[in-house]
């Protein structure tokens, strides 16, 4: 990514105040096409708030927010419309739903669920529903893909599969990606850049220069994990986990 | 004692109190399984049949006065009489039409108001408070007023049925629309859905179960209102048959008329359940026991 290329996301001095507390207090962020950026931070620091502002679901109180028109969000829950079949959920926002059926099926094929196109959302497992949500997000060919802890509710095995799937799909569609997560390993596995939001601003901004596919056993992986956990205020003792 | 037996701890004959055995009952007899499968259907037919038999017997044994409580056989004769002199064929369509028109009116108004109040803040502000107040009036109480206002023709009857059915339809539709998961609505918005598209693709389909519940209640209420409305000096319809029979001291025909009302109630309920079944294929079907 050449630094001169025009940023697809450009936000400056974004503030968001709830009551008398400035949850976001001057956030700056630039993303280019193809950037995969992970956003970490302790609970309640405003990660979701920032993501909602980027999605256009909430407005900032102050600052400048420039984002692509074509944006998609995958939330922690699949948020499918229960009364619409899977393929209709995938092209939910489309102007001509029937005409776009083939696009829906193509997106479902990418997440391995083409055979479920006619299913009702209640019949899907949690992981399948989340894959449909991912297909829905990518079917619109977004310039910006926003992911708010999309794997948090999945079991460990499904999560590993989802990491591979998401990495592959991001590589193919090449949107700018902002991934909010609590999982440091997940951030290192998927992102080119990792940010930590704390005290209302982005306090840490590190580039991950480990070639993909990244192995957790890699020395640099462990080093980066230790660094990030340190900045998140978690000691080495607890950091040793998996 | 063989070695392998020693390796396995003996299985307790009865599990300790804190343990619940949920394993499928392999030991249950075929007859037991068949009984469980058909119990519902058998009891549904058997219990009413027994009650009718008891009713018939009470007359035969002289427990009940034949005139106060005519036995089922006499009621059947009454149906035969009503049929052969053409009264039933004349009365039934009249009553059904009353209930149908009143219901259609009430449901249309209730649905429109419910959608308006559910989808738009202004609709809620304008309509919800007055409707919630009117709802508390038992519709039976307004009958005399309706007669003063509309006389004793068809108008007060249809108005009464319509008025009674507006509320269940309104309340269920309004709550259904308001109850749609905000998170799903938000997801629709992130994919560019607003206004009409958001309503027709996300909100209305998701609120449909509640609206259908409202319709089912309204259909039940319409029959209730029909019975009441037909007490207002009806000159045709089931209510007229019943009132007439009452004056002529024919309890068998009165009971036959009540039976028709009951049958209509059952038919309406079955039809509504079928409609729900086909309109809501996406709903998980859960029953207990
Ligand atoms: N609509 C709201 N009204 C009032 N306060 C809010 C609102 N939304 C968020 N907040 C507050 O803003 C803070 C940041 O919330 P946010 O959901 O962005 O945190 P987060 O970083 O996503 O946390 P988590 O990691 O637990 O998801 C919290 O203290 C929360 O209580
Ligand atoms: Mg959050």
TrEMBL record, chain A:
Transmembrane segments: none annotated. Pfam families: ABC_tran. The keyword Cytoplasm does not apply. Gene3D superfamilies: P-loop containing nucleotide triphosphate hydrolases. Keywords: ATP-binding, Cell membrane, Membrane, Nucleotide-binding, Translocase, Transport. Residues 9-224 form the ABC transporter domain. InterPro entries: AAA+_ATPase, ABC_transporter-like_ATP-bd, ABC_transporter-like_CS, ABC_transporter_ATP-bind, P-loop_NTPase. One of its GO terms (molecular function) is ATP binding. PANTHER family: ALIPHATIC SULFONATES IMPORT ATP-BINDING PROTEIN SSUB (PTHR42788:SF17), TAURINE IMPORT ATP-BINDING PROTEIN-RELATED (PTHR42788). This is ABC transporter ATP-binding protein. It comes from Paractinoplanes ovalisporus.
Automatic annotation (TrEMBL), chain B:
It comes from Paractinoplanes ovalisporus. Residues 9-19 have a biased composition (Low complexity). This is ABC transporter permease. Keywords: Cell membrane, Membrane, Transmembrane, Transmembrane helix, Transport. Its main location: membrane. Residues 92-272 form the ABC transmembrane type-1 domain. It is found in: Cell membrane. Residues 1-29 are annotated as: Disordered. It is a multi-pass membrane protein. It holds the Pfam family BPD_transp_1. The chain crosses the membrane at residues 45-64, 99-120, 132-152, 158-177, 253-275. Belongs to the binding-protein-dependent transport system permease family.
